[in-house]
Amino acid sequence: DMQYQLWEFIMKLTAYSVKLKKVVEIAEPKIVTMKNGRKAVSGVAAEDPTSKVFRILSDKDVAEVEKQIS
Question: Does the reported pTM lie above 0.85?
Answer without folding.
Answer: no
